From TrEMBL:
Domain of life: Bacteria
Name of the protein in its database record: ABC transporter ATP-binding protein
Membrane spanning stretches: 73-95, 155-181, 256-278
One Pfam family recorded for the sequence: ABC_tran
Gene Ontology annotations for the cellular component aspect, listed alphabetically: plasma membrane
Origin species: Halotia branconii CENA392
Topological relation to the membrane, as annotated: Multi-pass membrane protein
Length: 592
């Protein structure tokens, strides 16, 4: 189980995550440094050229044995060509390395975050909005990619510039070096102070954009409801509130970050003016050569002016760190459901299911299931009925280990489901729910979902068993028809039959029918019932239903109330007992 590390700096968390990219990071860093070294060489070459013009046969190059002025300039020209070529080569190299690194980190981080998200229990999703999670997986990771793309290189090159030029100043003109470097401590202190001030503002920005994305995702999903209730103006005003909140949060951050560069410029002015004045007087007095003075004037600009970009770089950095925290917090969320260790090959599953003294409560709520025991023999069909909220669907979620039970035991073929490999457990169970989810894709792809290697004849056979083949063939492109997001191009009954075909193709030893016919008309219900009667043969079936007519032939019917079993027997036996079930039957059949 991963430990939360909110106290660790986000940059350290990012470096810990990216340890597999260490070699690429060092290579990209090396290219950035070499590029900056060659980028800083031209001012030195200009100083040498001035020295040649002024001193000619007494210049620095002449002291190396080349007295001819043309020869000296020829050497300078060759050096210039080499320097410019190497600068260009390393610029290409660092740009390619950093950008590829950014793409790799973005790609792998998004995949890792999504895979981790899939492993979390349903309670995690119930406490968070889809839009907020989308914001982390998309916008936050993109923000990090933008920083790695350019910001990391900018920081490295600024640091390289400070070290190289600072050293050159002390070598060439130690008497005036302190003047050029005087603003540096204030610039660095100011940068760090701004970083601390900006951090909470950008954290707030990331939070606000999460709320905004949540509102957008929710409204797009509910567009039919919005239109049917003519709530367009109301929803637009609610979105305006979230967007305005995001804008104000950004405005606060911008107000602070925009002041950075003007303040840094004032500090730079001090160093540049001091060197211009005192360095010039030293050159006139003969205490410094004209070539050295020229080099220093060029170098101080190369030293100080890039520091103005620190504002944009730190702006990128703080946004990236705020995003890093959100992504890493997701990755550090502990997985409550462990994967299990005992294999259960699907061909060996008999399908015997037992609940023993099971108690379960959703977070911060009263128990939904309380001390419940239930035996489901292999190959039999049992039904569970009861009023809304009695805990019927919760049993399904517990059997699939979408939630972990608090106390008690659930077994499949005598093995506790917590000990079974999670993939094996879920592979042997087929679920047909009243809330059918179809993915944006073709009919065939949706039927084959979970049985991805299924052939076309197998898909069509499953559709025939589910009595879906006939209506599928009437669709514009039959099995290749796009169903739309969540299957919105199909009717409720059509979606239900595709879901049944999906379960047929999976061919699970244990089949769960959770209100599988609750949202369809009588004719469709009859068709679905015919298909269900065929597929429940020789497999353990758990049918949860409100319509008692659909489960009257079950081998045993369990009646639940307030999380407890209150009756259990066959349909005829329950009618004879004249209890809760008999009363429900009379209401639904019109006898009362």
């Amino acid at each position: 189980m991963k430990k939360r590390r909110h106290s660790v700096h986000p940059l350290q968390r990012l470096l810990d995550y990216g340890h597999q990219y260490r070699q690429q990071i060092w290579l990209a860093t090396g290219c950035s440094i070499l590029n900056k070294l060659f980028d800083l060489a031209p001012p030195a070459l200009i100083g040498i050229a001035v020295d040649v013009v002024v001193k000619q046969q007494d210049s620095i190059i002449a002291q190396l044995g080349v007295k001819d002025v043309f020869g000296q300039f020829l050497i300078l020209s060759v050096l210039t060509v080499i320097v410019w070529i190497l600068e260009s080569v390393f610029e290409y190299a660092y740009a390619r390395l950093w950008r590829n690194l950014a793409q790799s980190v973005q790609h792998n981080l998004r995949l890792d975050a999504y895979k981790h998200l899939q492993e979390l229990e349903l309670a995690y999703f119930e406490e968070r909005s889809t839009g907020g999670l989308m914001s982390i997986l998309s916008d936050d990771i993109n923000q990090l990619e933008r920083f790695l793309d350019t910001g990391a290189n900018d920081l490295i090159q600024v640091a390289t510039t400070v070290v190289i030029i600072g050293g050159a100043f002390f070598v060439l003109a130690p008497s005036v070096a302190w003047m050029a470097l005087l603003p540096m401590p204030f610039i660095l202190w100011g940068s760090l102070a701004y970083q601390r001030l900006l951090a909470p503002r950008y954290a707030d920005v990331r939070e606000k954009v999460g709320f905004l994305n949540s509102r957008l995702a929710n409204n797009i999903s509910g567009i039919t409801t919005i239109k049917s209730f003519t709530a367009e103006t109301y929803e637009a005003s609610r979105l305006e509130v979230e967007s305005e909140s995001y804008r104000r949060s950004n405005t606060k951050a911008i107000k602070l970050s925009a002041a950075f560069i003007p303040l840094i410029r004032m500090l730079i002015l001090v160093g540049f003016t001091a060197l211009l004045l005192y360095g010039g007087m030293a050159a006139v007095a003969g205490k410094m050569s004209v070539g050295t003075y020229s080099v220093l004037i060029f170098l101080i600009q190369r030293l100080l002016w890039p520091l103005t970009r620190l504002g944009d770089t730190f702006d990128q950095y703080q946004r990236a760190m705020a995003s890093t925290n959100r992504v890493m917090n997701l990755l550090d969320t502990p997985i409550a459901i462990h994967p299990g260790r005992i294999a259960l090959p699907i061909e060996k599953v008999r399908g015997e299911v037992k609940f023993k003294n099971v108690t379960f409560a959703y977070q911060d709520r009263f128990p939904v299931i309380e001390n419940l025991s239930l035996d489901i023999p292999a190959g039999k069909t049992i039904a569970i009925v009861g009023s809304t909220g009695s805990g019927k669907s919760t049993l399904v979620k517990l059997l699939l280990r979408l939630y972990e039970i608090k106390t008690g035991m659930i077994t499949v073929d005598g093995i506790e489901i917590q000990d079974l490999k999670l993939q094996d457990l879920r592979r042997c169970i087929g679920l047909v729910s009243q809330d059918v989810f179809l993915f944006h894709g073709t009919v065939a792809e949706n039927i084959a979902y979970g049985s991805f290697d299924a052939s076309e004849p197998e898909i069509m056979k499953a559709a025939r068993v589910a009595e879906a083949h006939e209506f599928i063939m009437e669709l514009p492109q039959s099995y290749e028809t796009i169903v739309g997001e969540r299957g919105q191009k199909l009717s409720g009954g059509q979606r239900q039959r595709i879901a049944i075909a999906r379960a047929v193709l999976k061919n699970p030893p244990i089949l769960i029918l959770d209100e599988a016919t609750s949202a369809v008309d009588n004719e469709t219900e009859a068709a679905i019932q015919r298909s269900l009667e065929r597929i429940i043969v020789d497999r353990t079936t758990i049918a949860i239903a409100h319509r008692l007519s659909t489960i009257r032939n079950a081998d045993c019917i369990y009646v639940m109330e307030h999380g407890k079993l209150v009756e259990s027997a066959t349909h005829e036996q329950l009618l004879e007992r004249d209890g809760i079930y008999a009363n429900l039957w009379r209401v639904q059949s019109g006898l009362k």
